[in-house]
Design goal:
Blueprint lengths: L1 H48 L2 E5 L7 E6 L4 E6 L4 H9 L4 H13 L2 E11 L2 E11 L11 E7 L22 E2 L2 E2 L1 E4 L2 E6 L4
Helix pairs in contact: 1-3
Length: about 200
Amino acid sequence: MRNYLFYSIIACLFLAACSSSKELSADYYRQNEEALVSIKDRFKKIHRLHPFSFEVRDKDFSEVGIEIITDTLRYIYHFNPGENNLADTLKAHRFNVPEMLTLFADMKQMRCTWITNLDYYERGQEKYMVFLSLRHNKLGSKRKEKYFTVAFFDQPQFYDNKGRLLDKEKSRNIMKINGQVFYKINSRACFTLSDTFR
């Protein structure tokens, strides 16, 4: 009887922790929606002309990485954001340097650690989503850090009654992105909590 009571209490605590993490994440998105959507929209606009992804490689935001994708090559660079090399590299690849530096500054302010454009296929058609990760201080424990990851889709998505992202309409199959289950924020955005930033 004691074992049953013990396991029941542990299960309730686990479910409460999961639920509060989801609520905290949804609240975080709502509180920061304007800034996150702005970062996503500017990223998409720049990405259409110059495909790239961007990462922050350390907790102090003192080392950044950018992956620049051309028709024939993929360039990967690492910089200290204060160095002129970053602006010089962006200029050499024909980016709008002030626009990019402003985007990076806004990402730093939001503690965004990764942004990229992922492609996927639905009914044989190639589609895209913007994938954005943030270091989420309130969700980390002393032992393990958590990342709040948002997937932004161009079209409305389908979710089950628990708010989990489904692979298609009238399906019971949960769609996983990078092995993670994502939960509904709205019809075109969903989130997960992850131990890794990408």
